[in-house]
Every structure is written in structure tokens, then in C-alpha cells.
Amino acid sequence: MTTMVHGSEETRRIIEASAALFGGGALRDLDPATLAAALREAGSVEVKGTDGLPTIVDLLVTSGLSKSRSEARRTVSEGGAYLNNERVEDPDLTPEHSDLLGGSWLVLRRGKKNLAGVEVVPR
Predict the structure, then answer these.
(1) Domain locations in the chain as residue ranges
(2) CA 119 to CA 40: how far, in whole Å?
(3) H helix intervals, 46-122
(4) Residue 119, number of CB atoms within 10 A of its CB
């Protein structure tokens, strides 16, 4: 149906974005506009990021992937937290600006199926 409405190229981009978001492809290879659209559709939040980014624990809570900081810390310690499809092992990890995809996005995952985008915007 997507191919009929939007064309085969758009269908290909959607398939690539879906695969990349859930660990089956390279996030950095996605077109920034496609990545942004996919993350907004999946669920995303904005954070201010000119003075530095929040820790992974704070991002998990802010994004709604964890209900509390203690739950977020448990998620990290149990190996269930991912930043840009890379497992996070340090609850004090603070993403760098070089981690931003398409210049302004972080992809957070809790477990295999819980996903959120974080758009880092200037203050």
C-alpha cells in the first residue's frame, strides 16, 4: 500500500529506517529527514543541549522509557539500555555532541521493542 501511495523509493526508506531503528541497520546511514520523521512517528522528546547533554539515565526518564531514575539505572545495569543501537553499560554516560545523528537526534532503546527519539535543540 505504501508503494502505491508514496512510491517505491519512499517504501525503501521506510524499511531501512525501521530496520536501523531496531538494530538491523546503520543509523548513521539514514537520511536525516527520514530519521527525524521515523523518530517523531515512534515517539520523541526535545531536550536543550547547548551546555551539555543529560546522562543516559536522565534521557531514559525524560523520554518515558523509564518511570524513574532508579528504574533507568537498573535497565542500564541489566544490559537493556541502548544509545544509537549501542548497549550502554555506564549509567553515568553522557552522550557527546558527536553522538547526534543527523546533527540533532539520539535514538534510545530499552530492551528490544521500546524506542524513543531525543531531539537535541539549542537553548
Answers:
(1) 2-121
(2) 9
(3) 56-62, 69-77
(4) 17
DSSP codes of every residue in 2-29: HHHHH-HHHHHHHHHHHHHHTTSS-GGG
Rounded to the nearest integer, the mean pLDDT of the chain is 85
The grid coordinates of residue 31 equal: 537520511
pLDDT at 2: 53
In the chain, the N- to C-terminal Cα span, in Å, equals 41
Residue type, 48: K
Coil/strand/helix, residue 39: helix
Angle at 35 between CA 14 and CA 66, to 5 degrees: 110
Query: What is the pLDDT, as a whole number, of residue 39?
Result: 86
What one-character DSSP code corresponds to residue 120? Answer: E
- Those residues whose C-beta lies under 8 Å from the C-beta of residue 75, and which sit 6 or more positions away, are 60, 65, 66, 81, 110
Regions in the chain scoring below 50 on pLDDT: none
Class level of CATH domain 2-121: alpha beta
Strand partners, 120: 47
